[in-house]
Amino acid sequence: MAILADFSPYLEPMGIDEAYLDVTGFESLHGSIRKMAEKIRQRVKDELGLCASIGIASSKVVAKVASDASKPDGLLEVPADGESAFLAPMPANKLPGIGKKSEQVLKKLGINTIGQLAASSPETLKSHFGAYGKLIHDHASGIDDRKVEPPAAAKSISRETTFSRDTRDMTLVQATLRYLSERVGSELRQEEKRARCITLKLRYADFTTITRQQTLLQPADTDQTIFDTGLKLLKNELPRSKQAVRLVGIGVSNLIEAGRQFDMLDAKGQRLEQLNTAIDRIRKKYGFTAIQTGRTLQLRDIFPESDEGYSLHTPSLSR
User: Fold this and answer.
1) Can you give the pLDDT at residue 303?
2) Among 148, 207, 230, 244, which residue has the least CB neighbours within 10 Å?
3) Distance in angstroms (rounded) separating the CA atoms of residues 234 and 42
4) How far apart, in whole angstroms, are the C-alpha atoms of residue 41 and residue 29?
5) Right CATH number for 156-257+265-318 from 3.20.10.10, 3.20.20.330, 3.30.1360.20, 3.30.1490.100?
6) The pLDDT value given to residue 197
């Protein structure tokens, strides 16, 4: 991503190993769009030792298809006004968004290629796919007006996990909540943000899901504040339910920039921030589980451990 950002600031990451790049106006710096793409591939190879495939087109959907078609280590440019001819002979499932179920529906309609999809009736597609039918019809025709959008600043950060078995072991639930709070706190500080709101998420054995929130008097980014608030919400909620817990999660929202003036009377808050700074430094060097609180040590006997931390069941990170 850093290499791509050197060629254009209009970068939209799509997972860990894929991105869209709008190079409009920047291609002249390299002679042509193709020469620019060749330089990108060469830098990725020289600096990372990785192969990179690139698709060049006037729209995101065609560039994606071209990139896939040029794998594992190719470069494919689709000329302007040549999108439909490029897409037409390809199998329908080569179009982004056409999965196995969609492909089965299309086959029943006698549609096997992207060209047949483009030539089909929009009304027929709408009757089978709803509003999505018009979108795949446009994409099959090479029509895609979506812009390359750089990632927005984080609006919230959360972590959650589903237990392998529904549990009434509140020690385990609290230990997991503590670990999740530490992961959220670490991410929050990495983003150089503070949070005004803490949210607890619980899902019970019957799949009933609840969330409880608390707004903080002062924005915070420390693990202890996140956990203490989440634990308070947890203790208030659990006596109301007699069911076992299936999922627990913790999140922060209403984020602001990290900088603030210290309260001279809040010595505890300053110590917690200094503690988190030290812990973050250790974890960055030696791995997340290199230093732990006593409460989370019991997770060592339950979840697999790696340098990245505990591998919780169905872990989730959202913004």
Assistant:
1) 64
2) 207
3) 53
4) 16
5) 3.30.1490.100
6) 95
- Mind giving me the DSSP string for 31-74? SSHHHHHHHHHHHHHHHH-----EEE-SSHHHHHHHHHHTTTT-
The amino acid sitting at 21 is L
pLDDT for position 38: 96
Dihedral angle, C-alpha 185, 187, 189, 191, nearest 10 °: -150
Q: Are 55 and 65 in contact (CB under 8 A)?
A: yes
How far is the C-alpha of 183 from the C-alpha of 86, rounded, in Å?
A: 46
- Residue of 141, 136, 112, 142 whose CA lies nearest to 124: 136
DSSP SS3 for 255: strand
Is residue 308 among the annotated active site residues? no
Instruction: Give the CATH fold of the 2-140 domain.
Output: DNA polymerase; domain 1 (1.10.150)
Give the whole-angstrom CA distance, residue 272 versus residue 256: 19
Residue tagged active-site, from 12, 18, 257, 273: 18
Check: CB of residue 195 under 8 Å from CB of residue 221: yes
Structural domain boundaries in the chain:
2-140, 156-257+265-318
List of long-range contacts for 226-229, beta carbons under 8 Å, 24+ apart: 226/181, 226/184, 226/185, 226/188, 226/195, 226/198, 226/250, 226/252, 227/177, 227/178, 227/181, 227/182, 229/198
According to the model, what pLDDT value does residue 274 have?
Answer: 86
pLDDT at 118: 95
29-to-25, 37, 39, 148 alpha-carbon distances in Å = 8, 12, 12, 20
Neighbours of 118 (CB within 10 A): 21
CB 268 within 8 A of CB 275: no
Which single residue is written with the structure tokens 């960055």? 284
Q: How far is CA 149 from CA 9, 13, 22, 43, 204, in A?
A: 10, 9, 9, 23, 38
Residues of the chain with pLDDT under 50: 261, 265, 314-319
